[in-house]
């Protein structure tokens, strides 16, 4: 699962859970606190657990069963055009390494023990690994009034997550809670940072077109995910904000 997909799943899930809890972004309650209050496990945690559960099945599958044979096959050469850049096997090995601390060369041995594997999956930590958390990225927001706010976020978090988690006072920011329906998370970046932000999807482009004060280096904060290479980035909040939902309703 790419960081972008993770971020979108999280945004959709939290938008739903906030409504169930009778809260909105303006209440500035952390996502983890809402999940705890409702007693629900995060969707990503469930997805990861089932991916790792399937990995255990594949590792223990006897020779001759097609899924196991495909998993054990090691094709070489270039991937055909249009295929994902990362193979599922590489993705899931890295996931196990990050979440359970099991290195790839021990993976088959550990996952081969059904009971051990099942108990490890039950103990899967709710949060990303401590390494990931300590690897914080510094972000500077320039607010509408020109004030500079400096905070830290984790790799993989979107700039909207950072605003919520750090309880930043940015008026009207993130009204649709990251579901690409409002454009209130419009941010302007410096040229060199903008080039590092990755591809803009058509959906983001459509929403950006409805933002006030659009520039050549504008992006939507809910679609920009942090990575170490963005450490120290400056994101300027435009002076005016447009909520695309109101323009469409009106
Ligand atoms: S929060 Fe609405 S488009 Fe980003």
TrEMBL record:
Annotated ranges, domain 2Fe-2S ferredoxin-type: 137-241
Cofactor: [2Fe-2S] cluster
InterPro entries reported for this sequence: 2Fe-2S_ferredoxin-like_sf, 2Fe-2S_ferredoxin-type, Adrenodoxin-like, Adrenodoxin_Fe-S_BS, Beta-grasp_dom_sf
GO function term, MF aspect, one: 2 iron, 2 sulfur cluster binding
Subcellular location: Mitochondrion matrix
GO cellular component: mitochondrial matrix
Keywords linked to the UniProt accession: 2Fe-2S, Electron transport, Iron, Iron-sulfur, Metal-binding, Mitochondrion, Transport
A GO biological process held by the record: P450-containing electron transport chain
SUPFAM superfamilies assigned to the protein according to its UniProt record, in alphabetical order: 2Fe-2S ferredoxin-like (SSF54292)
Species name: Takifugu flavidus
This protein's name: Adrenodoxin, mitochondrial
Major location (coarse): mitochondrion
Entries under Pfam families matching the protein: Fer2
Protein family according to the UniProt entry: Belongs to the adrenodoxin/putidaredoxin family.
